[in-house]
Amino acid sequence: MAVRKFDLIQGTLDLLVLKSLNTGPNHGYGIAMRIHQLSDDELRIEEGSLYPALYRMEEQGLIESEWRVTDNNRKAKFYRLTRKGRAAADAELDSWLRLSKAVTRVLRGLEQGA
Amino acid sequence: MKLRPPALIRRLLSIVKWRAQDEEMDQEMAFHLDAITREYVRGGMSEADAAIAARKRFGNVVRHKEAGHDVRTAYLDQFASDVRSGLRQLANARTFAFVAIVTLALGIGVNTGVFTVVKSVLLDALPYADADRLVRIHGGAAASTQGRGPLSAGTVEEIAARQQSFSSLAAFVDVSIEAVYGREDGPQIITSAWVEPGFFDTLGVAPLLGRAFRSEDAVNAMVALSGGAVGADTGSPVMLSHGAWARLFGTDAAVIGREVRINGIPRTVIGILPPTFIAPMGDVDFYLAFDRGPVVANPVAVRRSQWLGLVGRLEPGVTQDTARREVERIWADLVREYPADNGTLRASAIPLRDAMVGDTRRPLLVLMASAVLVLIITCANLAATILSRALSRRKEFALRAALGAGRARVVRQLLTESVVLACAGGVAGVLTAIIVLDVLRDLAARALPVHADLSLDSGALLASAVIALGTGLLFGVAPGVVVARGDAQRTLRDESRGSTEGLQSRRTRGMLVAGQMALCVSLLVGAGLLTRSLWAMAGASIGFEPDSVLTGAIQLPARDYSDPESRFQFRDQFEQRLRALPGVQSVATATSVPTMVRQRSGVTLEGTPASEAQPFVISTAVSDDYFRTLRIPLREGRTFDARDRVDAPPTLVVSEAMARRFWPGGDAVGSRLRLGPDTNSPLIEVVGVVGDVRNDRARQDAEPMAYRSTRQIPAPIVTLLMRTQSDPLALTRSVERELAAIDRGLPLQQVASLQGVLDDGLADRRLPVVLMTAFGGLALLLSSMGVYSLFASMTAAREREFGVRMALGSRPRAIAGLVLRQGAGWMAAGLLLGAVGIIVVARLVRELVYGVSAFDPLTIGTAVAILMTCAAAALLVPLFRATRIDAVVALRSE
Fold first, then answer.
1. A6 interfaces chain B, CB cutoff of 8 Å
2. Fewer beta carbons under 10 A from the terminal one: N or C of chain B?
């Protein structure tokens, strides 16, 4: 996945999308905006690559979609977490946190030892 | 690949919705691009710059869309690759695929065909409203084997007056009568039937157009009873069947109220029946209504003429059983009250469906059982074939398992193969079913009840397909599961080092083959018994010579031939003209074709009190040359001649069986008796005794028969019997020319050779024979295939062992003996099991067997011999191959 500032670790995009949908249904543009905002623009993804990921997660039954009218009175496809998606998001987050903590600990140790 | 059914369906749908999906992606991405563009415009960019910047941030739209499609269709690619691999596997094992697909096609096709017939006859609803509430009341002679006879008008009247079970009852004449429909372009033969005005109401059928009969539409029933000879047949209204309406009037609604001429008498069309309606008496074009009152009022005809069918609709809350008991009770009273009329008769009520299914129930159940047997053989064969293939691939699977393939992976591959196979077999099965039904339609039309509709039944197709395909899938996947679960290492070791097939797999296959042979021999015995019965029936002497005799019928319209003299003149003239034709040996006329005589008359010997119940004999009227034409031998006295004038004392010729029954002392000739219901009728003198004719061919003994002369009883129906020198049908045109020369308005009906008429008469007997023989043949084919594949895989599995034996000096004959010993055990087991099957089959077909024991040793011996011959032929090929093994090649192949 092409990234401006950081390369995204494989599979992280899914987690980001799932978590960003945790607060409620959103369309593709909205999801991209949330990820930018929450990361203080540190994470910039190529926004089009969101869509294959969304379709895949829909096939897996993690999210579902429906066409709705936005606040600006325009038609957009909104994605929503399914129950399965919510569980997957929690599990993924948990393992991500463990992984990043572990990696951080290792890297800190190496820094101090150096 | 997880394929939950809903997901599968959703995915299949998504292929259909491909374009919609494409559009959705376009819209969705366009919205996103637009949103970014506007974000940039709000930030102060120009529209054009903003659009370019948005595209840059979004990335390549086409590439993202393609990626999206790939995600959506990933499962499709997987599926396609599975199917491709399945097809590849089958192409590599062409014999296996062929055997499996043919087996499936035959199993599914044949079963669907037979299930369809059985369902249409035994299960489908009759074309009447609330058909389960309809009851049929039959009469008949107490001593007769033909249990479904007509009732007298008096009995109908009494039952109607005394019963409390029925909300309505309606009588009808239980035959359709050929009649002449006169129209501008010449006369046409149509069928007509007499019913009481309430007939259609009772059956719960409303006319499609116009109205149903009302009581004022009815004609004096004496007309219907006498075939138009007695009573005034005034121009009564008629109702038309939908078929006749379409055929004769092109479904023109204006036909209501139009005048039509039937048998020369103008009548008005008042109603058209719906297309689904089929009368209990079969296909009828025109219905006429009668009023039974005049017959009830006639002291002779009232109780001594048995001619009416009766249907009733049950009162709400009354069961079939209650109605049956009530009819029996009323009949017991009627026998007590009128012993002279009813003493030798019987009456009973049965559900209308049973009455219409009639004698076809037993043959159909036999067929059904045979079809199920074939289906079981099919499944066993399929199982054996697939199993032996899966077993021979055990090493491959074990290798895969050893290399880390999960059980799911192995099962999935097997499943895909089985599904590909099942689909091919399923398609072939549907095609076979269509062909089978086509054949059945030709074969069975005559033998099945009138309401049977032989169109492909989706339920039957589904049931057969599910069973056959299910077996395929089950046996396709089971070995994979076993292998995957089992100890891969041991299998690998066994299959490569140990050079023979595993004991367990061989036992499974052997049992399947033994079972097949048992079922096959049972079917063959059943088919053999029925075939021999048919031969016995068709071959046994029927008392006359049917070869080279032309038959046909002429209905003399009551209007033009009202007096007996004119009817006799017609016969006489007609016979004389035909005799003059070249190639004609002799000509006779009668009221009906021999073996098709329906009429029974009560006999009262001279000196017997009139109050005594009358025994019944078959009676018919024949012309002078009848016995000579049919070569029925004269035993005693004389046959009819010019002496038997209409005003001369009435005469009678009796059959030997009748002479034996009534005059055991041998003094038949010269004795006198009364024939028919009227106890005051003139006495008839017996002038001759002739050889017996078997009127009912399902009976081995000939029933007593009485012949009157057509000189004295010139009936309006003239049945022609003409003996010719060569092919009788070749003279049809000449006969029609002569007929037209006498009366241009009379068509010659039912033209056929007498042999043809007799063959048709056996149609309902032939159906189970042909079908069961076909099933037997099918079972034989399938079993032979089973035996072949058993031996083929047995020898293939031991190829290496045989190679070693050959290398060590064993001779081909010894190898052959080895194989045979191994296979013979299973074949013997099959025959032993078959003995049980034969007992079951013999019980099942006992009622249909004629002139041969149900345990006929010849039939059983032949069946076993045929099966053994086919099995031997099937095992020869693999056996031959086993003895030709090149020891060096076999050993090197390791």
1. no
2. C
